Amino acid sequence: MDKSKRAAVLAGNWKMNKTPAQAAELLDAIIPAVKDADCTVICCTPFVDLSVAVEKCKGTNVKIGAQNCHFKESGAYTGEVAANMLTEMGVEYVIIGHSERRQYFGETDETVNLRTKAALAAGLKVIICVGEMLDERENGVFEDIVGRQTKIALLGIDKAELKNIIIAYEPVWAIGTGKTATAEQAGEACGYIRSVVAKLYDNEAAEGLTIQYGGSMNPGNAAELLAQKDVDGGLIGGASLKAPDFKALVEAASK
Ligand code: PGA
């Protein structure tokens, strides 16, 4: 299967930005701007914005995602949100294992795996984030790190479920820093992740999997990154908060 047969997916990760009223305003700008997209378009908003976002995006081509979910169905987990709470609201996607959650909120490879399984069981599609720190890249161990993160995230997940999974390669040193991986580095890492998935499952599974690049992707560098044969889209932080930039990225991913 070649790249053109894989779904191109452009997802915005709004992180901890936008109140519900601001989210409505941003979506009012994004929805008409991306209506002709030839790729899947997702906006992952803060939990409190999901309700307004789902309502706004009904009948449009913009899908709504959350930025995390817990691995239990319910219980004494103060402050957490269960996967079925999201699906009941009409949320379709969830980001799991973002490096900011790994860095600041104690997320581990094991909890990424548990959360992924819970999200899939509830009917969500999952964007699993993997990526190395700067020192890990400098020490030449990025493949070990990204390989381990990918393998553990997918533990116990059947091949049939891969259609509901996207992997986002996000080198931590490129997130929010303005420092983008070169197109070659992004392409190499996404290709490596694909080879790991091929070993875990088979070539067909690996060739069908959408793998995104994320980390300071913007309208100026997107075309080159997205031209890489193993880069099937992007997970966009900063630039997803500006409708004109997001539109330009969606257009780049649609080519
Ligand atoms: P950035 O964030 O585009 O602002 O670097 C990407 C991400 O964290 O998903």
Classified in CATH, the superfamily is: Aldolase class I
Beta-strand percent range = 15-25%
The CATH topology label is TIM Barrel
Assigned CATH class: Alpha Beta
Q: Architecture, according to CATH?
A: Alpha-Beta Barrel
From the helix content, strand content and strand pairing, which structural class follows?
alpha/beta
Widest β-sheet, arrangement of strands:
1-2-3-4-5-6-7-8
Overall description:
The chain has 255 residues and is an alpha/beta fold. It has a single domain, classed as Aldolase class I (TIM Barrel, Alpha-Beta Barrel), CATH 3.20.20. The protein has 11 helices and 8 strands. The chain has helices spanning 20-33, 50-57, 83-89, 99-104, 109-121, 134-138, 142-153, 183-200, 203-208, 222-226, 243-254, and strands at 9-13, 40-44, 62-66, 93-96, 125-130, 165-169, 210-214, 233-236. The protein has an 8-stranded parallel β-barrel with strand order 1-2-3-4-5-6-7-8, surrounded by 5 helices. Helix 10 (222-226) links the parallel strand 7 and strand 8. Helix 1 (20-33) packs parallel to helix 2, helix 1 packs across helix 11 and helix 5 (109-121) packs parallel to helix 7. The model has no long low-confidence stretch (mean pLDDT 96). It binds 2-phosphoglycolic acid. 2-phosphoglycolic acid binds next to strand 8.
